[in-house]
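Honest question from a wet-lab person: if I give you the sequences of every part of a complex, can you actually get the arrangement of the whole thing, not just the pieces? Trying it with mine:
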Amino acid sequence: MVAAPVPPVTTVTSAPAAVDPLAALPGRKADVVPALVIVAFALLALPLVGSGSTWVTLTLAALAMGMMLFIMASGMTLVFGLMDVMNLGHAAFVAVGAYAATSLVGPLSPWLTSDSALKNIAAVVVIALAAMLATAIVGWVFERLFIKPAQGNHLKQILITIGAMIIIEQLLLVVWGANQMMLPLPTALRGSLVFGEVAVERYRLVSVGVGLLVFASLLLMLARTRVGLLIRAGVENREMVEALGYRIRRLFVAVFVAGAGLAGLGGAMWGFYREQFTVSIGAEVLVQILIVVIIGGLGSVTGCFAAAILIALSTNYVSFIAPDFALVSNIVVMMLVLLWRPRGLYPLGAQ
Amino acid sequence: MRDANPLLRLSGVHTHIGEYHILQGVDLLVPRSGVTVLLGRNGAGKTTTLRTIMGLWHASAGTLSFDDTDITRAETPDIARRGIAFVPEDMGIFGGLTVQENLRLAAIGGEFDEARLEWILGFFPALKRFWLRPGGTLSGGQKQMVAIARAIIEPRKLLLIDEPTKGLAPAIVQNLADAFMELKAKDTTILLVEQNFNFVRSLGDHVAVMDDGRVVHTGSMAELSANEDLQGRLLGLHTVAEA
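Yes, you can. This is the full assembly:
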């Protein structure tokens, strides 16, 4: 064993550890270019859309959709970054979240249909939390059954997780039947707020608020907590994290479960947004989630956020301006972003 | 290298990476103090030996014991917790984390022992300037300082250090040599892989030379340092040793 350290060397005048802990956030200068590109992209669409009020509506709708995409994709990007696990079954968690939410509509209907906005909102909060919890539990089982055995082999992971998604979808059909599921919004969240010529749907504002809250919470967790520090380190170099004595597998399971829970929250929100859906609600957004994870920069929460907004904006604008191209627009955006920044909008550890 | 109770003992260790049979029966003893230098040409298996000790690759045959405990099948985190720190060849710095965060990860409970930190910063004063800079923005030499500071931020029984001088400017190499001398004086045991013989000839106490996945020579550094024939035969180092 090494002896106790020698007394402080006299030439050291100030202890860095005494630096203000609040200043201890990553000292990298913020890279604003991708953010500016997204703003420029939105402004560029304004003359093409023509009407200002339509543009505002499209943009706000895209922001709401973008936030939901971000919430759905954030867990997947961390899981990919941390353990190099390609979980295409992540979309199944979206479906589980939506179905878990719909199951509570009955029991909570007195609150959902009440005239009291407080009860309405309380019901939605309970539904969202329950959807997260249910999906997190499914995520834990999913990790044990489908992810752990396929560790370290991408082809296996892709095949097994897609298979797992199909199994989960079929189980949802067995339990809930093949009918369309209903997830009606309560009165308090229905309708629009009108600002001049612009009508803004209340639920879209709520979605944006929840998305920002999740984003801020994730950033704070990553920047200020020890678990966050470990996740950031593990995403960059998991071998080194293990060599420092940490069991990264436990961390990974925790992140996987939390990521599944977030996808469940996204699924519940997406279900409320559509108000009716089928078992394919998750698979329908799988390609978009994948694109968001890839062009954001694997493992990057900030990148995931920026990419989700960019993809949602392009989907909405192109659907309006040139509906025939709506399907290819996401792919075109992905190609352009990757030509510009091959490692994504906000790659990790990039200098 | 004869030691009745070595800190680390590898006996007949074989390691396969995929279809490649890299270590082909490595026998190595690391005594309980001083610097043991692992020499050998590129591809001899030095890095694989360190990674096998660290559990990053598992031995397919043979045994490894550390501090009288069998670690042949142990997982990397457990090996680290037993008191082995590893500085890989690429230094393993987390580029998106600040210098402070890189070091904090290695500190038990995330809290620095202030006196020890001061002691470390005494021989790497440059780290104070880069304290809040992301690791990815540092030069190779600065990263090496972070990597070594991180390895010793807590007292360790054994440091595994892989080619620390590779690609570094001479002034920084001297700085590292001074730091290792100080660590040695504090009774830290180091297993150092190095190609730069001049760097290790004054630093090393014990030597093991590898070739083709085996240890082909063990002895004292004093003996190897004094015997140019041996250097030429084992290391092909006539010109370097005379330089």
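Two things worth pointing out. The longest helix of chain B spans residues 170-185. The beta strands of chain B are 8-17, 20-30, 35-40, 61-66, 69-70, 84-87, 158-162, 189-193, 206-211, 214-220.
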